[in-house]
Amino acid sequence: MRLTGFLILAAAAVVMSVATPGAHAAPLSDQPGTAMAGDGDVMFLRKAAMAGTLEIDASNLAQSRASSPAVKSFATQMIQDHRAAEAKLKQQAQRLRVQLPATPLQKDQQALARLGQMKGAEFDRAYAQQIGVDAHQDAVALFRKAADDAKDDGVKSFARQTLPTLEHHLEMAQKMASQVKP
Length: 182
Hints:
This protein is mostly helical. Helix content is 77%, strand content 0%. InterPro entries: DUF4142 (IPR025419), Ferritin-like (IPR012347).
């Protein structure tokens, strides 16, 4: 019941942010080289927060559910790197007065629940594909778009600085996925 109420409130917040363009964008300063965050920047920050939370939560699951040393090692690296990125993301959000979601998308929460029912080699394969490869392909696309299109200089810089790490994660994930294939 609480989750339903939370989802209704979250949906209402999204509707309100779409209904009032720029409601979450704050002017930065009068200094040259700064910009105003646009609605696309706000959506990027929110999507990045949800994606990062998914990867951290799934990687925490991997610590106890995975059987492959490669998967466990990858998960440890994901927790470390995504927590560091999360701290920088929160700085951008605070600067722009953007409230970030604390949980992944509902479809990702469901995927986490399914992962939580698995263990061993089954978990390894699902985690490697869904969190390792698929989630990182999505993250690379999200960050690449923000690196090119963000209106706010800080958001653009954050996306550009984080993108190479995500691309490296994707390469690592593809290698890991090939190692845990049946």
